[in-house]
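Notebook B, p. 112. Complex prediction, attempt 2.
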Amino acid sequence: MDILKELNEQQQLAVKATEGPVMVIAGAGSGKTRVLTYRIAYLLSKGVEPFHILSLTFTNKAAKEMKERIQELFGDQDARNVWMGTFHAIFARILRVDGHHLGFPSTFTIYDTDDSKNLIKHILKELNLDVKVYQPGAVLSRISLAKNNLFSAAEYAENDEFKEYDLAAQKPHIAKIFQIYQARLFKASAMDFDDLLFYTNVLLRDHPDCLLKYQQKFKYILVDEYQDTNFSQYTILKRLAANNENICVVGDDAQSIYGFRGANIENIFNFRRDYPDHQVFKLEQNYRSTQNILNAANCVIKNNRDQIKKTLWTGNDAGPVIHVLKASSDTEEGVLVAHSIFEQKMNHQLPNSGFVILYRTNAQSRSLEDALRKLNIPYRIYGGLSFYRRKEIKDLLAYFRVTVNPHDQESLLRIINYPARGIGQTSLERIQVAADEANLSLWEGLHDLDAIGAGINSGIKAKISDFTTKIKSYQIQVKHKSAYDLAYHITNNSGLLRELREDETPEGVSRAENIEELLNAVSDFTNTPSISEDGEIIPVSQKMRTLDEFLSEVSLLTDMDKEEGEEEQDKVTLMTIHAAKGLEFPHVYVTGLEENLFPSYMSMGTRAELEEERRLFYVAITRAKERLTLAYAETRYRWGNLTMCQPSRFIDEIDAEFVDQPSKVMHTPQNLRKVTPKERKGPTTGSNSLNSGPTESVDMQEIEKIQAGMEVEHARFGKGKVITVEGAGASKKATVDFPGTGEKQLLLRFARLKITGN
DNA sequence: AAATAGCGCTTTTTT
DNA sequence: AGCGCTATTT
């Protein structure tokens, strides 16, 4: 077959060894993706059906790119039918089909990290535990650790090691929280990220028929970035491959950078143990980088004790030496990097897209962005506040989620009073407690307010009923309307868009634009044909794409996966090193190379942690094809105050012969300015408090007079018309329609309405 | 009920 | 320094 000619000897061997267990140790830039791609193409050319191939990647983006490359080598059809995606995406898909064995509907919701943290917060409140002691993020990572090692909540509670650790950390109730957390998720028909893998394990463990089905389906299994799999993923692979053992894992221990979230390099050694007959292929020729860059990388990685020996070499030119930029401040670091990019661009007529700026933490992007903006260098930033984590997006998605799965309590709580519709916290808490006692979900409770004795007055009941009716009207349409049509309807009908349009600040406008962008994504989705279980492509004309299908895809997407617009092409890229894994750029800038930042102060406690930081630096270096620049600052603002910084030890680990001298500190006017303590924003003494006088007594008689139909005036909203009035005395409330502002609910005791007409 | 002021936390990385 | 959450105010 022709395509093999494009591979070197080792690569060819790795591609052709299709039967039995295979491990490929692939150094950075050695054509790892190429081997995977060609291996799939080779299997297809041998007549293997595409839907018998399972290819697991680390990111959606990697899956997408690999699919495109196979499509180039092959016909459109075949490539699309290969099961290719992240562990999470693939097994979410499987759980939608077979999760009913475990009691989950196919419409189950996937909670992201924010959802999980919110749920934990709610549980803490109910248990009367201190949020400061039981920080939701920390609790979640304990739960995550357990699940990634296949401990259920019950098993966690029984386990001495967990028990002792939590006791020592003064958090004895984590096991309890874990149990309630899992129960709540189940009740809400929801899974978090770790559950997708955990429950897949349960399914394959407890349902032999399912196990057999998927063993027969996935005759060939390929795994990318194997060094970053965790125990839960490892076990899934072991189960699926148990029958025919046609499993090929590709990885590089030197690029393992996800230990902090449970990834386990041990899996490489486990593989050797589990499949004694396995073949190993080492890819050691680097095609990506210059000799200088590769030499620098080798210098760094040899300081790690834990590694599989390999000698990475390249036939490429020596290339320029590594440049080091020394800046006096973080601001100047940005300026130096931006100027360097500008200079390179001008001298060599390079496109922006050839440059990437890498950093350890997202917070570092600001000074870099500022500098690029000043030089009018267009840039694109990945990560940070993800699109899908923005408030307005989460709000709208919550409407979608409740429509598809009303038991999803976190989403329901998010929207039940947004936009405000007079269902307050007090009422909600009462209903929640009552529903819980009756063992009903909140959504069920909303329908049986009297039966569960929630003690809600009729005014609020009517509002709740309005709300549930509205949601039900959406639910009826899920199967009859396209995803886009329904999404569009919900966006307008829910009042969410109206709420955003009222806000004319730049932020408000941007929020409305984000909503529009989400609707565009739904529209794209609606026009994308679906693929049946055995790989058949079903055109949109035959099977309409619906909102529940959209949701099942969107919950696993990240910013990296967003379609690039036409004008987005030629931009400098900014991202964290983690996000850059698997990518390459001609010109790479690694910034913030300072002790305590990189390596991070969080990861210097143990040798294992430090070595992971070093691998991270190795990954950063090996992204570069032609030119590598390292930058550090002598001072940096962190947590809002100025700190002194030492250059990172990692810089010294590179032999001097591959590095040039640090550039002189450039003295721009801004960093000559003396750094003085921030001037106080205003006088702090002698503040004559205006609001400490006796509160004006409220004229209760005036309040009693207010009735529906009256014209009133409000200090802020201006003139309006009273629509309804409810309650009496101090708790008397009115709904008032203010032209231009819309309907508002006001507690009359505070609102100080003036009656201007009847 | 809705708006505002103030407090405290964040900054490790992501599916 | 900036943000989100809580407590307070209106």
